[in-house]
């Protein structure tokens, strides 16, 4: 568990360094900084075995193939967040 916590902390630090503004965290929607964040998180998703794509609205989407047919016991889990931030955001925004 400690190893996973360290990986998470390292990745949050890496994402926090991707910004439009030097010395503060700013990644506005569809900005070059957001595109860089999408590419980095996309790499991590691929390393985890996900298929990755960006939709027409700029959303980064990672999926894994569902094995077998859907049944009432096999449901789809959807999680969502965002990689853009407000201006001068805290490290955990986005």
List the helices and strands and how they pair.
Blueprint (H helix, E strand, L loop, with lengths): L1 H15 L15 H16 L3 E4 L5 E4 L31
Description:
The protein is an alpha+beta fold. 33% of the residues lie in helices and 9% in strands. It has 2 helices and 2 strands. It has helices at 2-16, 32-47; strands at residues 51-54, 60-63. Strands 1-2 form a two-stranded antiparallel ribbon. Strand 1 and strand 2 form a beta hairpin. The longest helix has 16 residues, at 32-47. The two termini are 24 Å apart. The mean pLDDT is 86.
pLDDT under 50 segments (min length 5)?
Answer: none
Order of helices and strands: HHEE
Q: Whole-number average pLDDT?
A: 86
Q: What is the count of β-strands?
A: 2
Give the termini distance in whole angstroms. Answer: 24 Å
Strand content: 5-15%
Spatial arrangement of strands, main beta sheet: 1-2
Biggest sheet, in brief?
2 strands, antiparallel
Helical amount? 25-40%
Query: What shape does the CA trace take?
Result: globular
What's the tally of helices?
Answer: 2
Give me the Rg, rounded: 15 Å
Q: Provide the structure class.
A: alpha+beta
């Amino acid at each position: 568990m400690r190893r996973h916590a360290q990986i998470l902390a390292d990745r949050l630090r890496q994402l926090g360094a991707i910004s439009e503004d030097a010395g503060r965290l700013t990644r506005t929607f569809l900005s070059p900084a957001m595109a860089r964040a999408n590419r980095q998180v996309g790499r991590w998703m691929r390393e985890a075995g996900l298929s990755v794509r960006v939709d027409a609205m700029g959303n980064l989407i990672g999926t894994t193939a569902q094995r077998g047919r859907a049944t009432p016991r096999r449901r789809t889990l959807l999680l969502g967040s965002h990689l853009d931030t407000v201006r001068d955001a805290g490290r955990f925004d986005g």
